[in-house]
């Protein structure tokens, strides 16, 4: 809607000739909550204010009144009825300006491109800044259209390994739930599969981790941070990052990883649903490497490692 259309609508509303739809539109202005939205740029404010003021002065003949008053002519001022109309017009104009400043012309959400690696099929992509992202099967990466302008920020779910191109002027951010990872140039992996746990492993460089804006730690190569969302607690340990992260070359490698995380990874990698029914196994941690094996071989190896039993039921594996 341009400025001229807004002016004409306000004129019709003040004259009582507006359509029902236009009346509802104006009334929505009056009921809006400006504090909930983004302000306009100053030049946009001025343009809208000018249009609305012109509508007001045209309707009320305010300009001629101001001119005659300045010239010192003696003439009756407004009577009560006309003044009420002028006041109503001023309120409508001001309210419309506020609403337009904050609601009608607010910034639109930035479009986002979503990349997904289907279960059973890992995917490698190149980001607009030439950084590389390796998506574990089932992972999703959201890249906004303004990526690589002032900053490089992405959002993920699942497991993704990044090889970030160095650019000190544009920091690289990864948002996974409320966990935020910041880097300048490095290679690292972020895992956030279930919303309850998250992990970051650094292979090269250095990353800074925050949760809900609170700094957790700075990680250097060979360090892994695990964060428990429910307990709001994190631990840091030392790992073989090169072995753990390059699952597309080395196979899936787990080092004291929660059993649920291992099972979820196997399920996503082979695209086979797996359900754990025993609380006992959910509390276990696993150290294992699975490379160049079929799903049946991988599941048998995991079962032999921990000692659980499993069965196939309606195309799903049940661990008990």
Characterise this structure:
- Mean pLDDT is 81; it is low at 33-40 and 62-84.
- This protein has helices at residues 3-15, 20-31, 42-60, 62-70, 80-104, 241-245, 247-250, 259-270, 279-282, 295-306, and strands at 112-116, 123-126, 132-135, 140-144, 152-163, 172-176, 179-183, 187-192, 197-204, 207-211, 214-219, 223-228, 233-238, 252-258, 274-276, 285-290, 310-313, 316-319.
- The chain is α+β, with helices and mostly antiparallel strands and 320 residues long.
- The strands form 3 sheets. Strands 1, 2, 3, 4, 5, 6, 7, 8, 9, 10, 11, 12 and 13 form a 13-stranded mixed beta sheet that branches. It has a 3-stranded mixed beta sheet with strand order 15-18-17.
- α3 runs antiparallel to α5 (80-104).
- Helix content is 36%, strand content 32%.
Low-confidence stretches: 33-40, 62-84
Question: What's the CATH class of the largest domain, please?
Answer: Mainly Beta
Q: H/E series, N to C?
A: HHHHHEEEEEEEEEEEEEHHEHEHEHEE
Structural class: alpha+beta
Name the overall outline: elongated
List keywords for this structure.
10 helices, 320 residues, 3-stranded mixed β-sheet, 3 domains, alpha+beta, 13-stranded mixed β-sheet, elongated, Phage tail protein beta-alpha-beta fold, single chain, Jelly Rolls
């Amino acid at each position: 809607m341009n400025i001229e259309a807004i002016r004409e609508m306000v004129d019709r509303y003040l004259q009582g000739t507006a359509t029902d739809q236009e009346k509802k539109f104006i009334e929505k202005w009056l009921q809006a909550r400006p504090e909930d939205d983004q302000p306009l740029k100053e030049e946009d404010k001025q343009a809208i204010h000018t249009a609305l003021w012109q509508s007001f002065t045209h309707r009320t003949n305010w300009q001629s009144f101001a001119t005659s008053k300045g010239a010192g002519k003696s003439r009756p001022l407004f009577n009560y009825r006309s003044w009420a109309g002028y006041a109503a017009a001023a309120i409508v104009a001001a309210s419309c300006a506020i609403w337009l400043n904050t609601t009608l012309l607010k910034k639109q959400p930035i479009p986002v491109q979503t990349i997904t690696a289907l279960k059973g099929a890992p995917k490698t992509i190149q980001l607009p800044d030439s950084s590389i992202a390796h998506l574990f099967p089932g992972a999703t990466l959201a890249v906004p259209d303004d990526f690589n302008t002032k900053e490089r920020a992405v959002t993920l779910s699942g497991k993704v390994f990044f090889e970030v191109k160095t650019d000190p002027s544009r920091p690289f951010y990864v948002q996974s739930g409320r966990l935020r990872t910041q880097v300048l140039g490095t290679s690292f992996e972020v895992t956030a599969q279930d919303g309850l746990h998250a992990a970051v492993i650094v292979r090269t460089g250095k990353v800074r981790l925050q949760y809900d804006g609170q700094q957790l730690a700075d990680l250097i190569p060979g360090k892994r941070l695990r964060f428990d969302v429910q307990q709001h607690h994190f631990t840091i340990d030392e790992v073989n990052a090169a072995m753990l992260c390059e699952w597309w070359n080395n196979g899936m490698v787990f080092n004291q990883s929660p059993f649920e995380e291992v099972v979820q990874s196997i399920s996503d990698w082979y695209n086979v649903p797996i359900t754990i029914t025993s609380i006992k196994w959910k509390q276990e941690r696993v150290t294992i490497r699975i490379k160049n094996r079929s799903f049946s071989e991988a599941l048998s190896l995991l079962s032999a490692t921990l000692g659980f039993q499993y069965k196939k039921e309606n195309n799903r594996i049940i661990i008990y």
